[in-house]
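re: the backbone from monday

yeah here it is again, tokenized this time
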């Protein structure tokens, strides 16, 4: 991870030429970084640099609350030039694409683009910890990387459904892929202006929607990044919105499952499968086998009875619907016509915002409403809103009456824009790109089996031996969408750099669970992070130690 660092200098030749000046090639030292930074402000065509301010080094801070465990942490950062700007739209009714680029005073010649989340609409600053990152590691910016992110071309407003922007075609296409490409190119130009040269290596790290963005870059823009980390990527976006909506519809009446019953299911899953790996550690290490072994019907209420200690027929139907494949009446992009059913484990992971299992994502604390209410499951809020604003484009639609076949042309259009399901990564591989995908097996925000299926489609098309040369899939048992419930932290940035720059292909890795208490962020337990299709198996020792397990199918 060491290389010669480049001081922030004032080689503004590219900027001067673009602004109409004849030349400007004054080389300045670190003492003039403030002047260099301020000199970046200006505009060329659609790209506008609104502000550029030299920031002093900052210290680590841990908030008492946050949207996710890692979201509570503000890492220490070095002195850097904070660049804020926007890209004007072509359609005057479309919003601009906003971006932030962070240029460290001492640069290591690399950059990291951060992906977004959900429906985006929030500026990704590039100042937080990247996906899965250990809490105690220096941030990418502190390690000398240029970091940057975007709002993907729209801004969410309080009280407004997050999908409203999709009514504008340009805004939706920016969200699909164009915003990340445009901001990547702006970031490269800023590095050229600030340091006098372009980056030697470029990386992308994203989770959820950001994971989809990473795969989209590998598929649509294979020459742009050397290494990509896609955690819990929303690969089949159209499938997810429809499957999530279906799972909500089946809980609208008597099928809704209350939090006490969710715990009942979680306990039953662990009772059926926890011991299968040889240890009793409250984790299901092999959820694939467990899905076949666990039968929700064992929790059926006796005739005429109901309550928190059993499930009714309507509730059992709801669970089986969640676990079942969603089938489209026609094929989407890349020939896919379905979305896999969810698996088991992590049902009762406690809910707090996007953290958690069924209550956070599927069920909420109240049955689904129209329009979606804040106490509904996030999957319903996303899916029902997506049906209205993205597919039917009717904000007043009764979602219970929606039929995909009535909107086939729109679904095909959206699928071609949003679904990162193209298995042909030959161009990305040919130019030396490296890809790591990480799926959390207790994820109810998106489906880990969609990612597994995608990876296997790459292997089928390109061959397992060829795929082995440039791509990895890892699966983390018991982990929810945002990294809670089981060990989930791993420094994938270092793994990617080692693979891209040193040719060191990763094998099985290790994930940790850490206390959100700085500055030490003590590790409470660890597990092997196994390459698919292997799982951790217990051999001997403390169940909190990774060395007590080995990876095997």
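seq for it, each position gets an aa:
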């Amino acid at each position: 991870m060491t290389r010669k660092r480049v001081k922030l200098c004032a080689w503004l030749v590219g900027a001067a030429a673009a602004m109409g000046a004849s030349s400007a090639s004054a080389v300045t030292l670190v003492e003039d970084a403030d002047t260099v930074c301020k000199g970046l402000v200006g505009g060329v065509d659609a790209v506008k640099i609104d502000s550029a301010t030299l920031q002093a080094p900052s210290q680590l801070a841990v908030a008492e609350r946050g949207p996710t465990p890692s979201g509570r942490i503000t890492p220490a950062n070095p002195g850097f030039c904070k660049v804020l700007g926007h890209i004007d739209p072509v359609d005057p009714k479309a919003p601009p694409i906003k971006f932030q680029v962070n240029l460290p005073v001492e640069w290591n010649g690399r950059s990291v683009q951060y992906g977004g989340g959900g429906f985006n609409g929030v500026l990704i600053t590039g100042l937080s910890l990247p996906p899965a990152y250990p809490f105690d590691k220096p941030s990418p910016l502190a390690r000398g990387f240029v970091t940057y992110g975007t709002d993907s071309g729209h801004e969410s407003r309080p009280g407004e459904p997050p999908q409203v922007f999709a009514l504008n075609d340009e805004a939706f296409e920016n969200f699909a892929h164009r915003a990340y490409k445009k901001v990547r190119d702006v970031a490269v130009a800023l590095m050229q202006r600030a340091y006098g040269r372009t980056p030697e290596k470029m990386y992308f790290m994203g989770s959820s929607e950001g994971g989809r963005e990473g795969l989209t870059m590998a598929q649509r823009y294979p020459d742009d990044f050397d290494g990509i980390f896609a955690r819990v990527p929303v690969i089949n976006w159209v499938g997810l919105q429809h499957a999530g909506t279906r799972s909500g519809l089946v809980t609208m009446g008597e099928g809704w499952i209350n939090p006490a019953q969710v715990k009942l299911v979680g306990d039953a899953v662990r009772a059926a499968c926890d011991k299968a790996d040889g240890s009793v550690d409250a984790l299901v290490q092999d959820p694939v086998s467990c899905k076949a072994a666990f039968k929700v019907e064992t929790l059926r209420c006796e005739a005429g009875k109901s309550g928190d200690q059993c499930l009714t027929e309507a509730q059992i139907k709801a669970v089986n619907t969640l676990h079942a494949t969603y089938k489209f009446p026609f094929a989407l992009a890349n020939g896919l016509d379905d979305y896999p059913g969810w698996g088991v484990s992590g049902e009762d992971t406690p809910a707090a915002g996007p953290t958690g299992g069924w209550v956070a994502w599927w069920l909420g604390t109240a049955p689904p409403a129209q329009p979606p209410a804040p106490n509904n499951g996030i999957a319903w809020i996303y899916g029902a809103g997506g049906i209205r604003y993205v597919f039917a484009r009717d904000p007043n639609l009764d979602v219970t009456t929606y039929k995909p076949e009535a909107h086939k042309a729109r679904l095909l259009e959206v699928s071609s824009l949003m679904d990162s399901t193209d298995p042909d990564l030959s161009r990305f591989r040919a130019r030396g790109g490296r890809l790591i995908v990480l799926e959390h097996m207790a994820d109810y925000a998106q489906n880990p089996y969609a990612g597994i299926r995608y990876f296997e489609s790459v292997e089928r098309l390109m061959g397992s031996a060829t795929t082995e040369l440039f791509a990895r899939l890892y699966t983390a048992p018991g982990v929810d969408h945002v990294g809670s419930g089981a060990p989930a932290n791993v420094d994938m940035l270092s793994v990617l750099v080692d693979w891209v720059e040193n040719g060191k292909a990763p094998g099985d890795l290790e994930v940790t669970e850490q206390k959100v208490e700085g500055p030490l962020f003590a590790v409470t337990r660890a597990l092997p992070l196994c390459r698919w299709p292997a799982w951790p198996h217990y051999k001997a020792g403390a169940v909190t130690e990774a060395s007590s397990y080995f990876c095997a199918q």
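Residues 349 and 356 are 5 Å apart (CA to CA). Confidence is low (pLDDT under 50) at residues 9-30.
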